[in-house]
Structures are given as C-alpha cells and as structure tokens.
Recover the amino acids of this structure.
C-alpha cells in the first residue's frame, strides 16, 4: 500500500489529467505520414452511465471502436466508508475488455463483465478531513447493466472541416447521435435502478492528400520564444473563432524537461485563462513540479485580432493557482502533495499568424428534449 497526501482533495486528479493526458494518433502517421492520397474511416458506439444519489457518485462509459472491434471501459466511483463517516472509498478502472462483454443495438445496450486482470483497478480510501489518501490495487469489479432509450432527449449532429498544414491537406466529415436512456442492473453487487445514461454513435472519414516529409514539417515549426526568460518555445499555437462570439488561443509550451499549455477563451464574459506546466523539481530530480490554474482575467490583459493575440498578466485572486509535487509514477499510484502556489505566475505571450496551418469548420446539431424543447445550431 502506498500513501498519497492530497491537500487539494478531489480537484487534483482531474486537474493533473489535463497536463498528463496522452492522445492516440492514427497508425499512418507512425509510418512517416499517409500516402499522397489516403482515407481513414472510423466509427463506433457506446453507452454512458451517471449515478449521484447523494451518498454515492459514479460514472461509467463503454465504447466499441470500429473497424478494430475493440471495446474500452472506463469507470470511477465514490462512496462513504461503511464504518468511519470521515472516510470515503474511491474505485476506478480503465482498459480494454472482451468484445463479447458489450452488445448494443439502436435502442438497447448490455454490459456483462467481471473485470479481467488486463484492466487495472485502483481502490483508495480518502480522509475527507485531512486529505490523506491510501491506495492499493483493487480486486475485480462485476457489472451487469442494461441501457434502454427513453425517448426524452435526442441529439443528432454533423460536422465537416478542412485543415491545411504546410503541403498536407486534411478533410474530415463526421456525424454523431446521442439518445437518453435509463439504466438498470447491478454494479459490483449494488443495485442500479432507473439511473441516467445515454447511448451514442459516431462515424467519421478523414481524407489526407500530399503528406510532407517529417523534416519539412519540423523545419516549418515557428521559433516563437516566450520573453519571460523561461526558455519555453511554442511548438504550435492556434487561434480560432465562431461567429465572433467565442474566440480562443492555445499554445503548447515545450523546452528542456519542460512541458505545458496555455489557453485563453474570449466570449461575452471576461477572458478565461487556463494553464498547466510541469518541470523536474530542483530540490529532487526524481520528482516533478506541476502548476495548474484557471480563472477569469481582466479584459485589458488579453487582446485578440485576426492575425495576432497578446497576453500580459500576473495571476491574482481571480486565478487560483495550484502547485503539486509528484513523486513516483502517477497511476501506480504515486505520491502527490498539493497546495496553493506561493507566488503569482507571470505571462507575457504573443501569438502571430504564420500561414503555416489553417482550419475551417462547419457544424450543425439538433436537440429534442421532452415534449416542448427543440434546439438547433449551425456554425
């Protein structure tokens, strides 16, 4: 058993995911890029469950990917300790499951499974008064759940877009659907009755033309360097907008043993700043220091035009910043200690359009809820 000191409690796990998340990319790119013209098609379907009965909170999602036919299950739950009211029990798992354990048609879905050894399960006991958490490998979890659509809410949408990066042109077309459902059955011996859930489907096609070489792509990356003296460079920065009601910029920060991101979203309210970055702990090279922050900033701290953007700010009370020190390997689990950052974080960043990449998107969706609400959207 390993012990985790979690001063910020339940916020830390979700926040760290934003910094440490890893996205999968098509295998074609691992081979140096797609051919002069190629298409990648993917589709899938899945089911989701949410439980919040006051004492217990839980979520579960299961997705079937095509054409691979693989099925992926993710779940987490929190419930009071049966003896000590100051303690809570957390259980979570994420991994591939046998394809035969999940079946879905247009209106129903069934999950029948006892988690295999290949799907790791973590079980943690948290002290809600001190923030201390003790975790260990959990035992198998059994699911016997049935989803049935209830007709209360449906959503159908489609989107298309064109990306141009150097000489690589990518076209994407996709469509999706959501249907609300009621879920019943059992979750590890606990009865689930008329819980909220939904069934989903998606289908997409990506067309690639004229892939550049890896060398030409690397050579075209801009050399923008943050003027704060941190030594960070922007591997790629994006600015986008929709009907001029919401516009945002994003930048990946990379450097020697450094990684992070900065995002600013500008809408009808004050700009929303979100950031996270990590670097080796100078006091302990085996540990990692992570800073995370989010909050509304003054209008004057951020400006955005069609070709450039500027952020000049030292964080204040409106942008709480969390500082965490991670030792070991997160997820095994490792050890995390968090608390408010001792000093403000200062930004002086400039974005400039370089013509290297462009993106144009259109999307539409329709939502029908109950007997009286219909919402449509096109952008």
């Amino acid at each position: 058993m390993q012990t985790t000191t979690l001063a910020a409690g339940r916020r830390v796990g979700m926040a760290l995911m934003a910094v440490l998340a890893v996205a999968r990319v098509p295998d074609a790119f691992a081979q140096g890029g797609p051919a002069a013209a190629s298409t990648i098609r993917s589709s899938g379907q899945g089911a989701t469950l949410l439980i919040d009965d006051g004492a217990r909170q839980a979520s579960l999602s299961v997705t079937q990917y095509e054409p691979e036919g693989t099925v992926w299950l993710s779940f987490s739950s929190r419930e009071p300790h049966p003896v000590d009211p100051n303690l809570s029990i957390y259980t979570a798992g994420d991994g591939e499951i046998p394809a035969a354990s999940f079946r879905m048609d247009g209106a129903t879905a069934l999950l029948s499974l006892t988690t295999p050894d290949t799907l790791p399960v973590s079980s943690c006991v948290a002290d809600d008064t001190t923030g201390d958490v003790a975790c260990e490998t959990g035992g198998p979890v059994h699911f016997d759940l049935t989803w049935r659509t209830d007709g209360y809410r449906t959503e159908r949408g489609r989107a298309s877009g064109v990306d141009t990066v150097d000489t690589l042109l990518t076209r994407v077309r996709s469509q999706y659907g959501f249907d609300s459902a009621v879920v019943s059955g059992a979750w590890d011996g606990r009865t689930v009755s008329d819980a909220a859930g939904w069934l989903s489907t998606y289908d997409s096609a990506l067309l690639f033309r004229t892939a550049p070489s890896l060398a030409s792509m690397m050579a075209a990356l801009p050399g923008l360097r943050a003027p704060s003296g941190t030594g960070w460079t922007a591997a790629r920065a994006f600015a986008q907008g929709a009907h001029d009601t919401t516009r945002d910029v994003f930048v990946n920060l990379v450097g020697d043993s450094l990684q992070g991101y900065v995002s600013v979203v500008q809408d009808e309210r004050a700009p929303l700043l979100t950031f996270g970055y990590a670097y080796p702990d100078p006091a302990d090279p085996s540990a990692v220091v992570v800073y995370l922050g989010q909050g509304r900033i003054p209008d004057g701290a951020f400006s955005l035009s069609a070709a450039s953007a500027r952020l000049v700010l030292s964080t204040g009370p409106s942008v709480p910043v969390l500082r965490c020190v991670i030792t070991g390997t997160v997820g095994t689990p490792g050890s995390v200690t968090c608390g408010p950052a001792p000093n403000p974080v200062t930004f002086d960043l400039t974005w400039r359009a370089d013509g290297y990449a462009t993106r144009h998107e259109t999307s539409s969706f329709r939502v029908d809820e109950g007997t009286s609400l219909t919402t449509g959207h096109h952008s």
Summary: Helices lie at 11-20, 27-30, 214-219.
